[in-house]
Specification:
alpha/beta, FAD/NAD(P)-binding domain, D-Amino Acid Oxidase, Chain A, domain 2, Glutaredoxin, 3 domains, eight-stranded mixed β-sheet
């Protein structure tokens, strides 16, 4: 039973939207000791089986490592022996065009640049996992069946008007900051008048289907993803959702909005499978819009946007959810700094600069992948059982495998983003590393992710970061940092000093002193404490003009 909150409530942070980004924000804040209220208009988490995200990239898994939920993800994720191959074909029982093999979890190790590996975890399992972790922390009040209606804000607080979706009872919540995680149609974003800029790519329809032992009904072998190509181009794909019996079948889409009522989904699935005796159950059909949008800014006063409320991304690459979780990784420590009094308003301006740049970068990469999907050149003889048809299939398969490599192999997108233009990052004059979608080059250049290296005690350098700012002293001859520690103490900025006497780590980080933010991004580096350490502290904590 849902309780109608008719009285006014107060909380440091109000989170609107109970999807994965909203719950991750609540969990991040709770881990930092910050209370919040989360409101979600649905009556619970993952009540419907929807065709949503399922890939958690390596950077997200590093974040999960800090949040303490890696084991939970592993326990509910993809079966460890399930291959992650992408198969290009005319149908499951048709012609094979090409195959991009990717090993199963049990046959993989993490890339050398990170202690974590990419994981498959379907969103209908990931969302409840996050919600349970939030409940276990105990600092978040979750109100299901509660819709956001409007807000007013002053210089000191935000007042949100909420409505119980069953009873219609209204309530208000006063908060220091409001975080909108309420999806692409965000009522929070519209309430503060932030434009949503970008373009629609197509209109698609997805069906969640269930079929036991699908592999026994086709000749393409086990895989994670099957791309169906016809003379018209790539027309659909089938993706394993849970590695058992759940699959997502997606029509690639068209320029016109597709009406599920006029689609013979059973016939379309039948075309993809190529036989009619497979026991396929169509569970749910859902139309959706593939798009590339970004809010003109991610902040309006004390109102912040994250996830799909701030940016939308074609799912071609799996970057949407991961980008949204990256928003939270960036924002959690900033809100904590403001609420605890040691952070300045410049942090929120920096959040908008940092994450909007990354969102546009990641969505552009996804759109490039999608453009390759819908290329329809050179397919007129694709279905012919002839030497000409075979040659055309081989050419198309080779071209698609090469062109879509950055979609399936996208370590650079997930790990290589940078905040080097941020006002709270102190540049050191070094050139940026290449920003390649597939390849990630670790660097401790300010604005980049602090690189991973294994320490003598079995920990990763990644494990040194998260709760506070961390000042690394690297090498046996690292200089004294007492002046910088004192400047942080006077400012109230939490700072932990870690001395690492390891030549390989020192070589990787390139300088003797490296200041790492709570989100694991490098804020500053040098070989000596600056002459004005207080100015450095003020800059990285959001007082750049102090």
């Amino acid at each position: 039973m849902v309780t109608a909150h008719t009285e006014a409530s107060e909380t440091p942070v109000l989170i609107v939207g109970g999807g994965p980004v909203g719950f991750a924000a609540a969990l991040d804040l709770a881990k930092r000791g910050i209370r919040s209220i989360l409101v979600e208009q649905e009556q619970g988490t993952a009540l419907e089986l929807l065709a949503k995200a399922g890939t958690l990239n390596e950077r997200t898994m590093e974040y999960a490592r800090w949040l303490g939920i890696v084991d939970a993800i592993v326990n509910v994720g993809f079966p460890e022996d399930h291959p992650r191959d992408t198969v290009f074909c005319t149908g499951l029982n048709g012609f094979l065009l090409g195959r991009d093999p990717m090993p199963s979890t049990k046959d993989r190790t993490p890339p050398w640049q990170t202690p974590e590996m990419l994981r498959k975890c379907p969103q209908h399992l990931f969302d409840p996992l996050l919600a349970q972790a939030v409940r276990d922390r105990g600092l978040t009040e979750v109100r299901y069946g509660t819709a956001f209606e409007s807000l007013e804000q002053s210089a000191d607080e935000v007042t949100a008007r909420l409505v119980d979706v069953r009873s219609g009872a209204a309530s208000t919540v006063r908060c220091r900051y409001l975080l909108g995680c309420d999806g692409a149609g965000s009522a929070v974003r519209r309430s503060v008048g932030i434009p949503f800029e970008g373009k629609d790519l197509d209109y698609s329809v997805s069906a969640m289907i269930r079929v036991e032992n699908l592999d026994t009904y086709h000749v393409m072998g086990r895989g994670e993803r099957y791309m169906f190509v016809g003379t018209e181009g790539t027309w659909a794909n089938l993706t394993a959702v849970d590695g058992h019996s759940l699959y997502r079948f997606t029509m690639v889409g068209s320029e016109e909005r597709l009406n599920p009522a006029t689609l013979d989904m059973a016939a379309l699935v039948g075309r993809a499978v190529g036989r009619n005796d497979a026991p396929i159950e169509i569970l749910r059909v859902l139309p959706w819009r593939r798009s590339q949008y970004a809010a003109a800014r991610f902040r309006a006063g004390r109102v912040l946007l994250a996830g799909d409320a701030a940016h939308t991304t074609s799912p071609t690459g799996g970057h949407g959810l991961n980008t949204g979780l990256g928003d939270v990784m960036d924002l959690g420590w900033m809100l904590t700094a403001l609420l605890e009094g040691w952070g300045g308003e410049g942090l929120l301006d920096a959040y908008s600069v940092e994450r909007r740049t990354v969102a546009i970068r990641n969505s552009a990469a996804s759109t490039r992948n999608y453009t390759t999907w819908v290329d329809n050149t050179g397919r007129d003889r694709l279905l012919q059982d002839s030497p000409e048809g075979a040659a055309q299939r081989e050419a198309i398969g080779r071209r698609m495998t090469a062109a879509l490599s950055s979609e399936w192999h996208s370590l650079g997108v997930g790990m290589g983003y940078r905040y080097d233009q941020s006002p709270i990052v102190v540049a050191d004059g070094t050139p940026p590393t290449p920003d390649d979608p597939s390849e990630y080059v670790p660097t401790a250049r300010p604005g980049h992710r602090a690189p991973h290296a294994w320490l003598d005690d079995g920990r990763s350098t990644i494990d040194l970061f998260g709760d506070t700012f961390t000042l690394l002293r690297l090498g046996a001859d690292a200089p004294d940092v007492a002046a910088l520690v004192e400047a942080a103490r006077v400012a109230g900025m939490p700072l932990r000093v870690e001395t690492v006497d390891d030549g390989q780590v020192a070589k990787l980080y390139e300088h003797a002193l490296v200041l790492v933010r709570p989100d694991g991004m490098v804020a500053w580096r040098a070989d000596a404490v600056p002459a004005a350490p207080a100015r450095l502290v003020d800059t990285v904590r959001g007082f750049p003009d102090f």
